[in-house]
Amino acid sequence: MDLATIIGLIGGGFCIVLSIITSGGSIMGVFDIPSIFCTVGGSYFSLYLCAPLKQCLGLMKVVNRINKTYDYGEKKIVQNMVALSEKARREGILALEDGLDDIEDPFMRSGLRLVVDGTDGQVIRTIMENDMNQSEARHMSWIGIVNQWAGFAPGFGMMGTVIGLIGMLKNMEDKSAIGPNMAVALITTLYGSLMANWLLGPAAQKLLGQNADEMKTKEMIIEGVLAIQAGENPRIMAQKLLTYLEPAVRKAIEADVLKD
Question: How many C-beta neighbours within 10 Å does residue 60 have?
Fold first, then answer.
């Protein structure tokens, strides 16, 4: 579980509840079933008008990624790349074929297989970068749908408010009901704002961060694979790859990978 997501959900929810109570309201006072249908349901089903069915149905699974932490194994990748580079310089490129199936990262494994097959370095770069770009395009497509949902929610909140006001204006004879009816009408605006600014908007930003981390790891793998293909000195390659790591992680392994 991603502790930051839990803190954000619980902390944000607590602050919202506290503001409702301290302002003299009640939790049940801001809970309205018709408003939920209009704002949550309406904004969600509007996605079906602008996105393929597969994406709409799989959206919740994608959003659920914010509840998980992902370790892309950059530290292990650097160590493996250096070890493979040293092996290739000692025994030749073809010696790498023996351990290819043991490499966990499929992107790294496919790149090294191209190296073993004797593929030209520029062709390897083109293939791997295209793979990376297509992967990022898929991620951005999903993130775009989440952002669209975040954009639709406030609009449906205002729509629900207008619907509530229309109903209130049609029943102006009962003066005592105007205040409560106005409050209910405004609840949909609250729901739309919460969806956009507390849930969906932040979720899209966290997904963007996860995508950036994964793409950085893929870039690092491409640099390592090309260095091995070019027969580059393992120490020089290690220095290149270490630049992709955070300072604390870099310091923990640089003595090992930069050994003479």
Answer: 9
User: How confident is residue 210, by pLDDT bands cut at 50, 70 and 90?
Assistant: very high
Cα 232 to Cα 40: distance, rounded to the nearest angstrom: 55
Confidence of residue 177 (pLDDT cuts 50, 70, 90): low
Q: What is the b/e burial string over 126-164, where b = at least 16 CB atoms within 10 angstroms of the residue's CB?
A: eebeebbeeeeeebeebbebbbbbbebbbebbebbbeeb
Which H helix or E strand runs over 42?
Answer: helix 42-46
Q: At what angle do helices 121-169 and 53-63 cross, to 10 degrees?
A: 90
Interval 82-86 mean pLDDT: 93
What are the DSSP calls for 143-160, one per residue?
Answer: HHHHHHHHHHHHHHHHHH
Most confident of 133-142, 167-176, 248-257: 133-142
| Maximum Cα interatomic distance, the chain, rounded to a whole number of Å | 92
Cα–Cα distance, 22 to 216 (Å, whole number): 45
